[in-house]
Amino acid sequence: MRVWTRFAAFSAAIILFAAAQAAHAQDVVVFAAASLTNALDEAAQLFEKQGGTHPKISYAASSALAKQIEAGAPADVFISADLDWMNYLEERHLIQPTTRRNLLGNQLVLIAPADADLKVEIKPGLDLAAVLKGGHLAMADTDSVPAGKYGKAALEKLGIWNSVRGAVAPAESVRAALLLVSRRETPLGIVYATDAKADPRVKIVGVFPEDTHPPIIYPAALTASSKNASAARLLDFLGSPAARPIFEKEGFTVIAHAGGGA
Question: How confident is the model over 12-19, as a mean pLDDT?
Answer without folding.
Answer: 36
